[in-house]
Design goal:
The protein is an all-alpha fold and 62 residues long. Helices cover 79% and strands 0% of the residues. The chain starts with a helix and ends with a helix.
Length: 62
């Protein structure tokens, strides 16, 4: 049940972010699509920072 609650909250937050980003005026499907693309890009950038090795030289030498 907690797992389902987690996905519900995650979807609610993502939907809220998309809506707020698209609300420069009455949002159209294109506005929501652009907001989704920007949000996806932000999430991928954040995830890349988390998984990037701290020192690239030490991770390539083994």
């Amino acid at each position: 049940m907690v797992d389902r609650l987690w996905w519900f909250v995650t979807g609610l937050v993502a939907g809220g972010i998309l809506t707020v980003r698209a609300l420069g005026r009455r949002p159209t499907a294109r506005d929501l699509g652009r907001a989704a693309a920007r949000t996806g890009s932000d999430v991928m950038r954040f995830a890349a920072r988390g998984i990037r090795p701290r020192n690239r030289m030490s991770s390539t030498r083994r």
